[in-house]
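Here is the promised in-class demo. Please do not try to memorize the tokens; focus on the logic of going from shape to residues.
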């Protein structure tokens, strides 16, 4: 966890050989990247899984209507707890909903996220 926090490294030469290779073998041993997106996952759990499986885990956000991911973290992003930026093929807009007093011009912008 210290290596991940300091430099974004998921691997450790000693711990991987002793402990984490067993974890990796549970998934076939050839995992290169993992993606999650059905619900938010805590950054502590996400970082722990990155270290256990020695692989980056990308977190995404999207809708069924948009064919899944609209936003996705980079595999090289060491910071957990966000879904990243929109994919290059997606436009994002925050639409006002006046009947609910949700306005994009509020101090904390609110509204309907449209892809």
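The designed amino acids, position by position:
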């Amino acid at each position: 966890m210290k290596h991940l926090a300091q430099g974004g490294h998921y691997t450790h030469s000693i711990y991987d050989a002793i402990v984490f290779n067993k974890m990796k073998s549970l998934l076939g041993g050839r995992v290169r990247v993992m993606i999650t997106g059905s619900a938010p996952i805590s950054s502590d759990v996400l970082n722990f899984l990155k270290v256990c499986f020695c692989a980056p885990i990308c977190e995404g956000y999207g809708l069924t209507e948009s064919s899944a991911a609209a936003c996705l973290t980079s595999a090289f992003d060491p910071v957990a707890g966000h879904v990243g930026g929109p994919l290059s093929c997606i436009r994002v807009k925050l639409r006002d909903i006046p009947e609910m007093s949700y306005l994009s011009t509020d101090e904390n912008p609110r509204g309907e996220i449209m892809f």
